[in-house]
User: Fold this.
Amino acid sequence: MVGVLGNVEVAVSAVRTATGERLSSVVLTPMPGGVDRRLLERVRPRRVEPLDAPPAGSGLAPVPGDAGLPFLGHTLSYIRFGSAFTRARWAALGPVSWCGFAGEHVVIAAGPDATRAVLTNPDKAYSQDGWRFLVDEFFHRGLMLLDGDDHRVHRRVMQEAFTAERVRGYVDRTVPVLRETIPGWPRGRQVRLYPELKRLTLDVATRVFMDGRSGPEAEEVNRAFMDCVQAASAIVRRDLPGTRYRAGLRGRALLERYFTEALPAKRAGEGDDLFSALCRARTPEGEAFTDDDVVNHMIFLMMAAHDTSTITSAAAAYYLAAHPEWQERARAESLALGDGPTDAAALQSLHTLDLVIKESLRLAAPVPVVMRRTVKDAALLGHHVPAGRLVMVAGAVNHHDPAIWTDPDVFDPERFAAHRREDRGHRDAWIPFGGGVHKCLGMLFGSLEVTAILHELLRHHRVTVAPGYRPRWDNTSLPVPADGLPLRLEPLR
Ligand code: HEM
Assistant:
């Protein structure tokens, strides 16, 4: 789930500082709240323009919007404001709008009816090329990048590696990794929790997905993998010396070599890691993966599983720190489970953590937009979207729709409890895992992994946050805390 930025090489010369800093570090400079509010107001177009003229007699309306700055469009506002940007466009222009973005004119589908129309894709007008054009070099033939029958067959095979029984096995492998690491996190001083969580989830992925061990080889694979992730949202997208793009291409080549060499042993063995499961996955009709398929899927899965779980755990840890009453309530349930082995069923019994995680996914969706491209003319809520348009499906906007949620900006996990179930206000009210045929295949494992991380955290540490602190998210790729999320861990009293 990477990179919304893509081919904006032009942006480099326009914005890069003389020191060669990352574009985002400039765009994300903290400013007083009033300045941010005024900047956000400016995403409302001064002059609304129609995007494409609808065919005569179609009865369709053109998509309203504006291009923004030359070349850059509204890219910088998106990096700074993330889903607050897409919400502001939705408020100003409605559920179907357009903006200049990453060198293209991009249609934004926001709000529950628009996202549903694109994600359910009844006329097969929307393709995954919206992702392919951004990340194909690094995540070639990953499940999310496939379309049509190709996708259907691969998803059926991959599902065999994500059955409830398999996921229970992955959880059993995950918990010991967490228990080795989390109790030892530093206490009594500020810790940047995001990098700690990132290391942790990468370690989980190495052990659970590949049955790998720590050591120099694991380090090299992790580095290659991180290079691919960073390259997918690189601004300079040419194979030039010293660029993140080149490092990503090298990383991809290393990962292909690594998984290809490890594959024969995995095929022959009886392992219960994800890599082994993909080698053996077979549908009742006998469909299975080739060696190349397994390699491509492993590289994509490492990416799909890793940043998303890290962001969710980080956001939930922040909300627990900012709302000590919820932290205490969740901790009481975690401590009541005792020190015995924590399996999937035990994690699923942690009712309060379940509510907190759902609310964190609502307020800080790790994948706030998913990308599509029209392969034929589409009618989207009465608007004409011609073939070839990039479409940004802004699901996180739905999470703030005041027609569905009471006080949408307030942290209120109880809204997901049985007596309220605000998420049932619309089928697309709450869609952090996407929807339609590409809905997240790792939803169960991802939710259990995040629950297990927070459970261990609460059993060993009290989490606090400096008064008045608010996380700032860098939206260059998936939203990550720009400052690493400084929190304090204290011993339990
Ligand atoms: C909290 C964690 C996670 C979140 C919020 C999340 C979110 C998403 C979203 C929004 C999509 C849809 C993309 C689209 O429609 O284009 C997706 C797809 C996918 N995710 Fe996740 N994900 C998470 C964790 C995981 C994990 C742990 C795995 C694997 C172990 C995983 C595997 C996948 C796969 C394979 C797809 C592609 C499905 C397809 O195209 O058929 N995800 N995820």
About this structure: The pocket of protoporphyrin IX containing FE is lined by residues 1, 143-144, 155, 301, 304-305, 308-309, 312, 366-367, 370, 432-434, 438, 440-442, 445-446, 450 (CB under 6 Å).
